[in-house]
């Protein structure tokens, strides 16, 4: 259950920690008497860590369906992948060509 005394940012960071643990590269580093799990700094200079942002987009794209393409929620135009919400409002632009190639090859677009 969520702690009501936590701020919205703390709750967001908790969610990002869980996301990183589930989908990221959260492998423990083991020593003889110590084990350390490395977590990224989630916000850098008031912005989301680019590595974490790429992971969020990658996981989102891995879960997209052909319906998302048909409905225009995900489109590729002139080397830019656009992600829109249900109302058609742009929520992300992906310029990472590797991600775009992987996405388009998955759907044969």
| Helical fraction | 40-55%
Overall average pLDDT: 87
Low-confidence sequence ranges: none
Q: How are the strands ordered across the major sheet?
A: 5-6-7
User: SSE order, as H and E?
Assistant: HEEEEHHEEEH
- The total count of strands amounts to 7
Q: Give Rg in angstroms.
A: 17 Å
The biggest sheet, with number of strands, parallel, antiparallel or mixed sense and barrel status, is: 3 strands, antiparallel
Portion of residues in beta strands equals 15-25%
Query: What is the tally of helical segments?
Result: 4
Shape by Cα distribution = globular
- As for the number of domains, it is 2
Class by alpha and beta content: alpha+beta
Euclidean distance between termini CA atoms: 42 Å
Report on this structure.
The structure is a single chain. The protein is of the alpha+beta class. It folds into 2 domains: 1-49, no CATH class; 64-109, no CATH class. It is built from 4 helices and 7 strands; from the N terminus they run αββββααβββα. A hairpin with a 2-residue loop joins strand 5 and strand 6 (80-84). The model has no long low-confidence stretch (mean pLDDT 87).
Give a topology summary:
Layout: H1 8-23, E1 28-30, E2 35-37, E3 43-44, E4 47-48, H2 50-62, H3 66-70, E5 74-77, E6 80-84, E7 90-94, H4 97-107
Give the gist of this structure:
This protein is an alpha+beta fold and 109 residues long.
Characteristic terms for this protein:
single chain; 109 residues; two-stranded antiparallel sheet
């Amino acid at each position: 259950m969520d702690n009501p005394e936590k701020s919205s940012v703390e709750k967001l960071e908790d969610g990002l920690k869980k996301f990183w643990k589930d989908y990221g590269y959260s492998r423990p580093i083991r020593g003889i008497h110590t084990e350390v799990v490395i977590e990224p700094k989630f916000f850098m200079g008031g912005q989301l860590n680019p590595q974490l942002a790429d992971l969020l987009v990658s996981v989102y794209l891995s879960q997209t369906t052909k319906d998302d393409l048909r409905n225009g929620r995900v489109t590729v135009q002139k080397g830019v992948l656009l992600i829109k919400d249900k109302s058609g409002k742009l929520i992300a632009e992906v310029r990472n060509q590797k991600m775009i190639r992987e996405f388009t090859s998955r759907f044969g677009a």
